[in-house]
Design brief:
Shape: elongated
Number of strands: 11
Helix content: 40-55%
Structural class: alpha/beta
Largest sheet: 7 strands, mixed
CATH architecture of the largest domain: 3-Layer(aba) Sandwich
Radius of gyration: 27 Å
Distance between the termini: 68 Å
CATH class of the largest domain: Alpha Beta
Strand content: 15-25%
Number of helices: 11
Length: 304
């Protein structure tokens, strides 16, 4: 059995020197003496037979070989930290907190059912719920703010499963000018009317899902505000059908008779940020989301 000549501790010291800008700064950050930091890097270079650092003024910089080797070492350090997190999770049982980002398109009644089913299992686990629009859930995953996300797109580096399809329908108030035309609508008709869209809550890779050909286009931050505006005759928009069933039944909204493109479809996916090290609370919550969506049954509590 081969035993590595270098240690994770040595690579961690090298990483600290690079990130902190020098031996003294790394020693302070690691709560070590500068001599021990210097010795560990010198020993690492001796063991490998490769120069890893060069001094540029007062800063220590990686050599070309050092850059390539540290990149791989960072992966190993990340794996080691994940291993320790898994051990901690197994030793302590359920996590003290589970964070979840949920796209605003996810049916709220299903979300409430998931949390209702989760609550008896999680007496000592706090739930941090972040409600997002468009790429907001992706940001939460990439920035490592959440353990679970329900998102309309799976960001690079993550894996997920499709939960459900969301259908959108172009609507306006029955008295809106578009309905008063009394015929099938064309692109040109939409372009002369106010289109109301919701702003992306993400900032890393924001998306623009609005229809861009309209001369008049207003952007709001709240899906509920957009719904109220359109229900009150101000503008048109493509709204998720499951969110507007009541308004359609009450006659507050009416589908636009578009010749093409009246309906759109988008998929929501469930993504566990780190499935290899996910604790029991995270796994339980993710499984409940899958079950509730699959069953599609909402049990309303009885008020006594």
């Amino acid at each position: 059995m081969k035993i590595p000549r270098s240690t994770l501790e040595q690579w961690q010291v090298l990483q600290a020197i690079v990130e902190c800008g020098g031996y003294a700064q790394a020693a302070e950050a690691l709560h070590r003496s500068q001599s021990s930091v210097s010795y560990m890097v010198a020993k690492l270079q001796e063991q490998l037979g490769v120069e890893l650092l060069e001094i540029d003024g007062r800063r220590a910089r990686l050599t070309q070989n050092g850059t390539a080797l540290l990149a791989k070492a960072r992966e190993l350090l990340g794996d080691a930290f994940q291993l320790e997190q898994l051990a901690t999770s197994l030793a302590e049982g359920w996590e003290p907190q589970v964070s979840i980002a949920v796209d605003s398109l996810f049916p709220v009644e299903l979300l409430v059912q998931v949390l209702r089913d989760f609550e008896p299992w999680a007496k000592h686990t706090r739930v941090n719920l972040e409600e997002t629009v468009l790429s907001g859930s992706e940001d939460a995953l990439v920035e490592q703010r959440v353990d679970i996300a329900i998102a309309s797109r799976i960001p690079s580096g993550f894996l997920g499963d499709v939960l459900m399809d969301i259908e959108f329908i172009a609507v306006a108030h029955p008295c809106h000018a578009l309905h008063e035309l009394g015929r099938e609508l064309e692109v040109e008709d939409l372009g002369r009317n106010l289109h109301i869209v919701v702003r992306d809550s993400g900032t890393l890779n924001p998306r623009d899902h609005g229809w861009l050909s309209s001369n008049q286009r207003w952007t709001v931050t709240s899906p509920h505000t957009r719904l109220e505006m359109i229900c009150n005759g101000l503008g048109f928009g493509w709204l998720p059908e499951h969110k507007i069933r009541t308004q359609l039944e009450q006659g507050l909204l009416k589908p636009l008779p578009l010749r093409v493109g009246q309906r759109r479809k988008l998929s929501l996916s469930l993504i566990v940020a780190n499935p290899e090290v996910a604790g029991p609370a995270t796994c339980r919550l993710a499984n409940l989301i899958r079950k509730v969506v699959k069953d599609g049954i909402v049990h309303r509590p009885l008020c006594g």
